[in-house]
Amino acid sequence: MSAGKKNTVIFISGRGSNMEQLIKASLSPNYPAKIIGIISNKPDAKGLEIAKAHNIKMAIISPKDFSGKKATDEAISKQLEQWNTDIICLAGYMRLLGKDFCKKWQGKIINIHPSLLPRYKGLDTHQRALEAGEIEHGCTVHFVTYEMDDGPNIGQVIVPIEIGDDAKALEKRVLKAEHHLYAWALEQVALDKIKF
Questions:
Q1: Which residues are catalytic?
Q2: Confidence (pTM)
């Protein structure tokens, strides 16, 4: 199936645990996406070690090296075009992409977020869900638009909140759900079963 696989680039800023799960899923001969590159805004992102171990091309595109957001986004776009990118997966990428970039790649960028969107956009989602007295939490994969943690949902997994949960315990269980959900969501998008 290799000929028909969609060229997929993953953006990371940190440990890369979702990235690692996507790489593992992509190694299956029948999986419709091939991870061809990793882009990080941080040269010390732990996930780069994982990418190196899998011999996947990497590019460090740090905002510090450019005159502003627009120039950074243009450099990212250029790299994506060089790699003939079909799909972009944001996996713990802690930088907001600009309006022009999001427009250019609309329908091709997906993101995983640790809450049941539209609830709890932004950071500290686990703590916020606990403080609100929620009985369930979870994760969402969605298409990316310029608005933060917005855009059409591709899929969600509900994770029940258990008595005695703190943010760390909840994060651990949600992360497990993220790993399964993201691989499934990328597959659906790569197969054109779910579109923007």
A1: 113
A2: 0.96
Q: Which tens digit of pLDDT belongs to each residue from 37-79?
A: 999 999 999 999 999 999 999 999 999 999 999 999 999 999 9
3-state SS assignment for residue 87? strand
Q: Which domains does the chain have, with CATH numbers?
A: 2-190 (3.40.50.170)
Residues 6+ apart with CB under 8 A from 172: none
Q: Which of 72, 78, 87 is nearest to 36 (CA)?
A: 87
SS3 of the chain: helix, strand, coil, percent, to 5: 40, 20, 40
Beta partners for residue 156, in sequence order: 140
Render pLDDT for 123-151 as a digit per residue (tens, 0 to 9): 999 999 999 999 999 999 999 999 999 99
Q: Could you tell me the sign of the dihedral formed by the alpha carbons of 133, 139, 143, 145, in that order?
A: positive
CB-count exposure of residue 58 (10 Å: 0-12, 13-18, 19+): middle
